[in-house]
């Protein structure tokens, strides 16, 4: 009769040999890299990149896309809707997987959106609505209406009456919503009167020229609402150029580093802070979720917070949220 220990010894040797072969196989096997594929290209275009808000938004989107092993191609139409439409056409030709869009003109961008639809390119609308919401997969934006509401409540808290100047971009739905929130909140307060409402671009230089014109006309006012921070800073530049001594309350919307600096120095009363970093990350992740076949919301609103001297210390003076 064969001894048990002889059988166990042979069986054990077989196990050791097999284990050795498995170890050798695993050591020689090339690890699988989840990014070991052809990078996908994504496109992005915003109304203008000379407003520091948009580079902050773009860099946030790019951070997520790069982390996924992909590429972001960014274009600057410099406030020209026809140019933006051409850029979107070029991005389609470059074979992008999806496009992140902030329109120069919320209606004028429609031809480019139709091109994207026909090419099967999903569009993720950021920062400001497009008129044809059915042509985008999802809109990721600040709660722009509430930004105006918060400023109006601050005005009501700090004054008993006022004559108001408003300057905003007529073709950007986000600034229209901000103004609407502001006006709706003041609607039942007859002691607050809008004496001038100027419609133009959302750039510092243009706002400065508008305000210089208002000052030269001798318009009497106490409060200025700018559709964004560059507008508020342009208003401030005009007031300083004309050496206006009357106490005025200037409001912007963005929560930009420059805006916060002017709030700290007492030149601007407040700015409803947007969160471009949070918005960008949310937009990029939403795009990846959609491409992975997940259900996503049609509209995602990012909360805003009014920054004044009272809460300025709670915010990063040199950065964005």
List the helices and strands and how they pair.
Layout: H1 4-28, E1 41-45, H2 53-67, E2 71-75, H3 81-93, E3 98-101, H4 110-119, E4 123-126, E5 138-142, H5 144-158, E6 162-169, H6 173-186, E7 192-200, H7 204-216, E8 223-226, H8 229-241, E9 249-254, H9 257-264, E10 270-273, H10 276-291, E11 299-302, E12 305-307
Parallel strand pairs: 1-2, 1-3, 3-4, 4-5, 5-11, 6-7, 6-8, 8-9, 9-10
Antiparallel strand pairs: 10-12
Helix pairs in contact: 2-10, 3-4, 5-6, 7-8
Account of the 3D structure:
There is one protein chain. By secondary structure, this protein is of the alpha/beta class. The chain has two domains: 41-143 and 276-302, Response regulator (Rossmann fold, 3-Layer(aba) Sandwich), CATH 3.40.50.2300; 144-273 and 309-314, Response regulator (Rossmann fold, 3-Layer(aba) Sandwich). It is built from ten helices and twelve strands. The strands form two sheets. The protein has a six-stranded parallel beta sheet with strand order 2-1-3-4-5-11, sandwiched between helices. α8 (229-241) links the parallel β8 (223-226) and β9. The longest helix has 25 residues, at 4-28. It is elongated, with a radius of gyration of 28 Å. The model is unreliable at 1-34 (pLDDT under 50).
List keywords for this structure.
single chain, 321 residues, alpha/beta, Rossmann fold, 2 domains, six-stranded mixed sheet, 44% helix, 19% strand, elongated, disordered N terminus
């Amino acid at each position: 009769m064969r001894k048990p220990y002889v059988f166990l010894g042979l069986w054990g040797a077989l196990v050791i040999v097999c284990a050795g072969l498995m170890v050798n196989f695993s050591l020689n096997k090339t690890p699988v890299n989840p990014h070991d594929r052809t990078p996908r290209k994504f496109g992005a275009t915003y109304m203008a990149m000379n407003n520091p808000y948009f580079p902050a938004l773009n860099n946030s989107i790019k951070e997520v896309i790069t982390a996924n092993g992909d590429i972001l191609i960014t274009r600057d139409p410099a406030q020209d809707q026809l140019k933006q439409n051409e850029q979107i056409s070029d991005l389609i030709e470059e074979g992008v997987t999806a496009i992140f869009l902030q329109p120069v003109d919320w209606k004028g961008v429609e031809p480019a959106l139709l091109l994207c639809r026909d090419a099967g390119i999903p569009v993720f609308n950021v920062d400001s609505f497009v008129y044809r919401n059915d042509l985008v997969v999802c809109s990721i934006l600040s709660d722009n209406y509430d930004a105006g509401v918060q400023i109006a409540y601050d005005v009501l808290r700090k004054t008993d009456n006022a004559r108001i100047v408003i300057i905003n971009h007529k073709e950007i739905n986000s600034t229209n919503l901000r103004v609407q929130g502001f006006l709706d909140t003041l609607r039942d307060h007859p002691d607050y009167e809008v004496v001038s409402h100027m419609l133009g671009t959302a750039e510092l230089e243009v706002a400065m020229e508008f305000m210089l014109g208002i000052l030269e006309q001798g318009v009497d006012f106490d409060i200025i609402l700018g559709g964004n921070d560059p507008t508020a800073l342009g208003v401030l530049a005009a007031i300083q150029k004309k050496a206006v001594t009357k106490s005025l309350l200037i409001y912007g919307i963005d929560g930009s580093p420059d805006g916060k600096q002017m709030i700290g120095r007492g030149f601007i009363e407040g700015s409803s802070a947007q969160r471009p970093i949070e918005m960008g990350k949310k937009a990029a992740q939403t795009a990846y979720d959609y491409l992975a076949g997940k259900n996503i919301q049609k509209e995602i609103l990012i909360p805003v917070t009014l920054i004044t001297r009272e809460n300025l210390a709670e915010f990063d003076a040199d950065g964005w949220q």
